[in-house]
Every structure is written in C-alpha cells, then in structure tokens.
Specification:
alpha+beta, Beta-Lactamase, Heat Shock Protein 90, 4 domains, five-stranded antiparallel β-sheet, 12 strands, about 50% helix, about 15% strand, globular, transcription regulation, Response regulator transcription factor, transcription, WH-like_DNA-bd_sf, Tscrpt_reg_LuxR_C
Amino acid sequence: MEASTPHLPPALVAERVGTVATAPLHTVAARLHEVINEVLPHQALAVFTEDCTGRPQKKAGDPAITERVTIAELDAVRRLVSEGQQPGSALIAGEQRKVRVYDATTGAILVLCEPGDGTYPGAESYVRAVWTTAATRIRQQVAEARPDYLRESRAASTERLQVTAELTARHESDLETVLATLRGRDLDDARARLLATEMAAVALVRVRAGSDLVAALAEEPVSQAFERLRTDLRPLSRHGGTQIQFIEPPSDGRALPGEVAHAARAIVRSAVLLMREQEDVARIRVQWNCDGTSLLISVRDDGPGLLNQSRSPLRQLTARATALGGSLAVEAVETWGSEIDVRIPLDPPDTSDTAVHMWDLGPREVEVLRLLVAGRRNRQIAVELGISENTVKFHTSQVYRKLGVTSRAAAAALAADAGLALSSDTPPHTPR
C-alpha cells in the first residue's frame, strides 16, 4: 500500500508547498513543474482554470508540448473528468499522449503529460496536496483582483484569440472537405449530398461548441457576476449586523469581460468591509448598472460620512479601477453618509498605433498583420493586397521576427491584443 506522504524530509515538503502557495500567477505552472518533477517525473504539465479569464491555461516543461497544447484539448479533458472519468491518455499538443489528471474543488484541472512512475512512495498524495494548494491559491489571487493581475488579464486575451484561430482553421478544413466531397466524381449526386450534409452538421456542432467555449472564457453575464457578489456578501448581511441592500443591474445588460467582473466584485467587497468599520453604519446599498460601454458601480452607506479618498484602502481600490482604464470617486457628507462611485470601461483602449511603433512595422507588414488577425490565409492575403504568395510569406516571416513569435496564431493573437484589427468599414484592396 502506498504511504500517505512521500519519503521527503517534512521541512522540505513544507518548503515545496510554500513555494507553490506563494507563487505569482504567471509562475505557478513553473513552480508546480519543478516541485512535482522531484517525485513524479513528467515531460510537461498544463493547468486549465476558468477562474483566470485572461490566461485560462498555464503550462511548463517541454516546449514541444507547451507551445502546441490548446485550450480546446484541455477543455475536452476537463469535461471527461467532470463526467467522472479518469483518462489515461488524451489528445495533447496534437498527439495522443499518456496523461495523469488531477481535479480540484475550484473546477481547475492539472494535466501531467507523459508521466513516469513516482520516485517516492506517496508521490500521488504529495502531488495531489501540492496541486490542491496551487488551485486554491489561483482562485484567491483572482478574487483579490490585484491591479497587476487586472492589467495582465485585460492585455492577455491571447489564449481566447488562439482558440478562435484554432476554430477558424478547423472550420476551414471542414469546409474544404465538404467542397471536395461535392466536387468529387466517385460518388453520385445523392450520395455526395448525403455525406456533405452529415459532415456539415458535425462541423456546425463543433463550431458552436467552440464558440461557446470562447464566450465562456471571455465574458460573464452581468446578472451572473452580480449574483456571485451577492453570494460573497450574504454572510455579512446575515451575521454582521449591517443590512446590505442589493440593486441588481438589468438582466439583459451587456456581458462583462472576465477581468471587469473580477475587479467589480473585489472593489465592492473591499468597499463594504471598509464602510462597516465605521461607527453607526446600519445599511449599505450596492448598485450595479451598465450603460453599454462601462460598468457603473455605486456603494453607499448611512454612516458618519467621513470616508476620505486619501486613505490607503481607498487608494488600493482606485488602483484596481485605474488598472482597467476606469475611475473611482468618493463623496462624503458628514452625518449623511459616504458614497463610492466606480466606472470601469468594458472595452480596452485602442493601442494599435503604439504597438505598430513599438514593433517597427512597415506599412505593408501592418496590412499583412491586420489580415492575419482577420483570419485570412496566404492566398487570400495575396489576392487582397495584389502581391504574390511568396511575397506574403516574406512579409509574414518579417512580422514573426519583429513580434517575437513563431506561429500564425500567436502573431494574430498578439496583434489583436494590441487592437490591430481589420476595420469593418475598410474596403478590400483591389489588385492593380
């Protein structure tokens, strides 16, 4: 029978768990890989968590795996685990690989790719304990919504855009297959139509499922986000001696980007706790509204009206709002109470001009990159710009070099992050 703990000195075990528990979000995968590899060797690992809307996957280890593993692959593994299955192999980085999967109460999963046998008795228990610590800490850091996390999350829609690029490529392949079936001479018309219809139906289901995944990672319905806030604050209202009144946003309001939802909940929680510290506060009103471009937050108390924006806790709340391009204002009237008003824009600012300058892109390279973001293939880009495919390939390689990436999807995602998208009112280039 496996021992309950690995044969490692207790002090060393505590140190390893501590390094994971204190790891910033952007290093947690590397820390996990390091400490787990000591007792359970593996080629690479990937974490998939819906808590982090900016980068739902975190990975470390062999670049041949980490640079190719996709969110769609990890989501497929997560769905198997949620159905009670424990897959011994899975499609990871485009290949069927041996895996070991660990879930967590937060809904996140840890996937070890090509694991060996544990080098210590109790390795399994050790890995599960370390992973539980990491998963809990990830959720805590997201809930805290620190300004650095919010800025990274807003800027890092790369993962979501990569999923979109993957879906686009797969959908293109499906359409080419359907067209090849319809054009083929080996089948009669009736048989060809039947096969094409079946393939199109399967492709449509796949695209819809993928689109749902992208939307789930990117946004949270405003009513759902507000209900999560209500759940968080309910114990304070029941047992804290202060009545909290909730004024809900319209249920059909625009969905909130994940980083906005995280920031809004964190700001309100902190504001409510700050107001409750005052004397003679009997009621706090929490209201959200959405004007289509910004989330508007109001937190008002009936206390002494002495809150001052220069106080350290309020400066921290202001930092959260400004990290997303928003603002926070405090109005306090003595004996009448205090009100904290927050505005957080739902869309990131346009940074395309800054990005073009930073990357030192030429005019033609900008055109090529915009078309990459729009999902165009080399042949389509060549037609739209009136140049040869070889010229497109040359410009694409230059773009990769200047952006510091090695793939089409990565270039498109990075450019889209910077707001470098093809304008809907820009007419296609007419070849001369």
